[in-house]
Amino acid sequence: MVSKNQIKLINSLQQKKYRKLHNLFIAEGKKVIQELIDANFSLEHLFVTKTDLFDKKHAATLILDSELKKISALTTANDCLAVFEIKETTFKPTSGLELALDNIKDPGNMGTIIRLCDWFGISKIVCTEETVDIYNPKVVQATMGSLARVQVEYTNLVAYLKATDLEIFGTFMDGKNIYKSNLPSKGIIVMGNEANGISSEIEQLVTQKIAIPRFGNLQQTESLNVATATAIFLSEFKRNN
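Now predict its structure.
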């Protein structure tokens, strides 16, 4: 069974301040948990409702479905939950394409963007310090395990962009048509906040503004979801190279 102290600790990990305090985060579902184990994340505790989900070398606590619901961050609990130690990461410089996120707030968007970077072979994401935490349970879930393979660095993004020698591509509604642009194999693509776009301070550092044109007859749609837009931009950069 799950003790009261364990329930209290695990539930607290849904908040960033307690994740930082304990240096722990939670993951749910066999695929996500197995991906993190395979990536050598340190497994602190594993709770399962079935005995045959994981290799027996990973000690697991068998619990009831009703107990899992008490510690799950999901609306509908899965069949397993793990507590992992947050990895201390040494960020490696990249020589290709990078993605920069300016104050992305939605956990679902963040998780999907990490998964997209994994798909398109983008090994590094650089974020403002205000961007949603990658160890938020909803982010972890949305990555479907891609969190294990993509570097995500939180930093002063303005200072980071000022220091780079790479071309900086900013995504704007009034930018140059992405389908008619010559896109290099190296550079930084900046994606802006869901409601406000790219901040004015970062906009001043952009060397080329790019956009996804609207093809609808009425052209009244105000914007694309940031994760959807990221998929299109990454696809075009990769297709051109």
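The longest helix spans residues 107-120.
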